Amino acid sequence: MISDVDFHAAYLDSILDRYGHAATNLLQILREAQEHHSYIHPDAIDYLIAKLQVPRAKIEGVASFYSFLHLKPHGEYRVLFSDNITDRMLGSVELMQKMCQQLWIEPGKMSEDKLVSIGTTACTGMCDQGPAMLVNGRTITRLTHQRVQEIGQLIRNRTPLENWPADFFRVEDNIRRKGLLLGNTLAPGDALCAALVLGAQNIAEALKTSGLRGRGGAGYSTGLKWEACRNAPGAAKHVICNADEGEPGTFKDRVLLTSHADLVFEGMTLCALAVGAQHGYIYLRGEYQYLLKPLQAALQRRRDAKLLGKNILGHAGFDFDIVIHLGAGAYICGEETALIESMEGKRGVPRNRPPFPVTHGYLQQPTALNNVETFCQAALAIHMGAENYRAIGTPKSTGSKLISVSGDCPRPGIYEYPFGVTVREVLQDCGAVNTRAVQVSGPSGLCIAESEFNRRLGFEDIPTAGALMVFDDSRDMFEVARNFVHFFAHDSCGFCTPCRVGTSMLKQTMDKIAEGHGTKYDLSEMENLDRVLQTSSHCGLGRTACNPVLHTLKRFRPAYESRLKSLDFVPAFDLDGALARARQMTGRDDAGAHIKAEET
Amino acid sequence: MSEKKKLRVATTSLAGCFGCHMSFLDIDERLIPLLELVEFDRSPLTDIKHCGPCDIGLIEGGICNGENVHVLREFRKNCKILIAIGSCAITGGLPAQRNHLDLGDCLTEVYLTEAGLAHGHIPNDPELPLPLDKVHPLHEVVKIDYFIPGCPPSGDAIWKFLTDLIAGKTPELGHGLIEYD
């Protein structure tokens, strides 16, 4: 019989070999180690400490940071229900209860036979075909009572995931409106040829002329970024594609990586040419693991077609290749510097900026890091010419934008518009009626009411990373905000105190109001908390975490006020109930053993 | 010139160690000018048992039993401005270390299981306040107007805070006076 240590060494050695025994690949190593054993075994950690020469605190620190890495057994089947508000609106909470009943387990706990555990996870990017879940990392869409029951049965029978009905795993693109990007007819290499004619040194300039701005939300000029990266001194330069699409309600990158992967790679290769990089990476969010194999196949096709690798398209010295890094469930890694930290095998904690990634990025080298959609748009802009590109959209927001529409509408999916489209037009196209509110750009974005539906999507008015969640008049906007606040509290990276503590306090206050203990005082406390978070958080997560509450308080105040008690202050817990245990232990029930509610 | 009316100040220690009160006494000789401006109502300094109408209430310590709740409510009812002073009042502090244990287990361990107890039983005299199942910070039970952090906050911090308040300014501690440990 082989010993436990040998057992773990056997699979770890091959993983370590593939990742060059480099601690900078720790996240990838741990992720693959977990695939072998369903959780990261203590013996495996001992082995990695010895082989990678890193302290235990580092390995356990990384492993405990990411939601999808586990240091304890979670069962043969790990079921995670997507917990975005859009999933909830489609009935995910009830489905999860049903499944827990069916399998006789409590949420968050493993069944006694170590077969299964059921929990929730942040938005899995399937809002247009929810409710969704992940089973051992694999995405399952369009859950119904029947489907959940079938899944329960498959788990009970210990049916391997490969043998589950393929329809469970089907992910639709749901492209509803095509434009410049989704309707493009470029063949692989077209944009690169145009770029080579233009000349490497002129690409950044052309993008500046085109007015292209980053599609991840911040909207920085892509041309300026690439130029800065080109001019930055460094031994090796890197191109990173941010495919950590974690903002709840956003799923456009999923569609681009499914149906326009070549254009994404083309844009990255073009970027490499522009900045002089040899190494490219896609940071793919763990929730999209099912895209890994198709993407790797697409990369291989490009290598075979001389569009990646050495001497691309026969140009001596134009060397570039792309590898895929898989995330492991951390919203914060969508922030560019946290993403880089994560790629370096660390906890995804945002860095101080400056220095910016263009000078000190991955491995402290100059790095051009852009959103999936930005790379596609860059390829299109170079192919069609900067002036032609500039003519689309609005003066300060050129080109088109993919909008991920979900929530209360009959046609959720991906809509592409030139920048400057009004929210009302989007609502009409997706067939939304009786709309009460729209959440633009996810929980950290903006919540608007009907009177504002003529506002325009674009950097001049409402900037957006692409999410648009629709809420009709049956929805309670307090519960929407509460869902978002829970999300931020869960996904705070925990590095800075204002955000770690502040998001939890916000969550507690929202829960207090939900349970009927809220007062006007609590509303003003949340506004105070917002000031602290906005002024003292380390990164954007903390600065935007109060947005859902502030925006809904401003527009839907009655949703809060109807829950308040009229008193100035009410404790968050039942005072007399808090003495129950002591009464039980002492056998007392005299007047002194009770606390009466205060007279007001 | 008519003499300015003195402000009434009450202080108490709930689930605390009196360390904050000791720190208060660290304002040393400044107690004398302070007494020109304020007079003390209920406080360990006066031994007055119940609080009357006051301008300022200072409370150290968190809420660990029923009596704490009554005292806190009495202060809230009588004090225009209520201040939580020190870590225990603000977060529950050291006494809140018991919050992750079951109260019944605690009482059993202390009064029944522990060796050397002759007639071990859990005290149940009605004179004794009953412990709450968890220790809470003050602001979870009543509204608190100001917080002075520190374990304990320094005499200088308390002095600065009170003199600001008495002068009618929004108190600001600033660098060097705010402590979190």
Polypeptide structure, described:
- The complex is a heterodimer of chains A (600) and B (181).
- Chain A has 600 residues and is an alpha/beta fold.
- Chain A has 6 domains: 4-65; 77-172, Glutaredoxin (3-Layer(aba) Sandwich); 176-391, 3-Layer(aba) Sandwich (Rossmann fold); 397-475, Ubiquitin-like (UB roll), CATH 3.10.20; 478-561, de novo design (two linked rop proteins) (Up-down Bundle), CATH 1.20.1440; 575-600, no CATH class.
- Chain A has 24 helices and 16 strands.
- In chain A, strands 5-13-12-16-14-15 form a 6-stranded mixed sheet.
- In chain A, helix 1 packs across helix 3 and helix 18 packs antiparallel against helix 22 (547-555).
- Chain A is globular, with a radius of gyration of 25 Å.
- Chain A starts with a helix and ends in a 14-residue tail after the last helix.
- Chain B has one domain: 3-Layer(aba) Sandwich (Rossmann fold), CATH 3.40.50.700.
- Chain B is built from 6 helices and 7 strands; from the N terminus they run E-H-H-E-E-E-H-E-H-H-E-E-H.
- Chain B has helices at residues 19-25, 31-37, 66-78, 87-91, 103-113, 155-166, and strands spanning 7-13, 38-40, 54-60, 63-65, 79-85, 131-136, 146-148.
- In chain B, the strands form 2 sheets. Chain B has a 5-stranded parallel sheet with strand order 2-1-3-5-7, sandwiched between helices. Chain B has a two-stranded antiparallel ribbon with strand order 4-6.
- The N and C termini of chain B lie far apart (45 Å).
- The relative contact order of chain B is 0.19.
- The mean pLDDT of chain B is 92.
- Classes of the chains: A alpha/beta (600), B alpha/beta (181).
- The A-B interface holds A 521, 568-569, 571-573, 575, 578-588, 590, 592-595, 598 and B 66, 69-70, 73, 102-104, 107-108, 122-124, 126-127, 129-134, 136, 140-143.
